[in-house]
Amino acid sequence: MARLASAVRPRLARVTAAAAPRITRWVRKKPQVTRVRTWQYTAGAATAGLALAAGVVTAAGPWDSSGQRTAERDRAAAGHPTGGADHGRTSGTTSVAGPRPAPSAASVLAGLGGAAPAAGNPAPGARPLADVLDPLLGGGALGERHAATVVDLTTGQRLYGSGAGQALIPASTTKVATAVAALSALGPDHRLTTHAAFEPDTGELVLVGGGDPTLTARDDAGEWASLRTLAARTAKKLRERDVREVTLSYDTTLYAGPALHPIGVNDNIAQVTPLMADEARTDDSTSGPAPRAAEPAADATRVFAGLLKSHGIRTTAPGPSKATSRAQTLATVSSPPLSTLVERMLTNSDNDIAEALVRHTALATGERPDFAGAGRAVEQQLKKLGLPVKGAVFQDGSGLSRGDRLTTGLLTALLAEAAEPDRPELRPALTGLPVAGFTGTLSSRYADGAAGIVRAKTGTLTGVNALAGTVVDSDGRVLAFAFLASGTVDPAATQTALDRAATALAGCGCR
Q: Is 172 a catalytic residue?
């Protein structure tokens, strides 16, 4: 992302100054309420503190205290650019070549550098947005039914709506709703904790699942909760008690209902259980489809047993149990903040994190932590935020269920809510969106389009394609968009049509 930042920094500095009047003053009308707000959706990819017009180049990692993303900072410090699209140093000299626009985004950046129109208004003579989108969305590639909505986040004005209230299968764009619901119910600083509890009366050690699918047994845990660390801490506490052998059990009672997703055994998701290591992946992958362990909790506990053995603690073969009120916690490990989990979920379209987050949303709101209760919890949280949930159906948190239904009107409302200055806790629902051409599920798309300008959540099932996110148009306006298509027959053609529509938003400066 450092190469993108160096490419766009000069132009973004100009457009930030030009667009400041309408980015810093955001007026939206709601029933009986008119708000004047200060735009505070900032990003750290090019320069900390740039407004959202500059924020389209942010990387998809966590924020640090300076406002710059940790992942991007590390990459910038360690990178050795080679020129070209990487905008590297001039070969054979000690001088640094001036930044050049990335070839794929040159026309968009050129548009952004132009004079800005009055606040919230397109340039004089701008084309109606319908004239641009209708041909792109109506060519047949979007299948039997499709819907689209575009909203100007500066003014709250709907610029385009076609079937905005029509509830269609959303696929993985459901994760935008999951993100907003979880962040609003739990807060961005909430962490998921796994702990080891000891029953002194029976000598039983219970590994208690806390619903953290990112718990890892890898040698290098990075920022994630480490099963190795938990084992080392637990063994130390046991040795202090002069305990060298335990009956080992595991507790998965945090969740209720069936663990198997209704789609059945599938490489896209493990069983939904509060205890697993590395998302129960049986290969070395960290994202995408992968074979999964048949019994994630038992598998993680067997790994835990091996780690305890390396620290001098012998165990029995693990089995299911439940920690009693007499159990004493020996050690804990916690996930990164919920904000980081949300960003990873959105960037990688991580189904395991999504299902964990909706269950924790259910737990936080008094609903039963199963598929049905989690769906009710998400709907209720969105209602509390005043979002248009009519027609919406939440049968899971990942969007793998074909029974899910969302409208493009709700998707754009979710994005707008996450951009609210008085809703900073929801901001990861935006900062986690994949960056076109650079990160996550959009890393291989937009090579000839709005790379770095579009940020969006993808959605794909058989016969279903979706895209929802944000884009900065050629006038510097920040737009939220959502496209849903059902009954599609050519996935490649549909994806191309959606990408072209998003690219058109970046370049048209329409009214």
A: yes
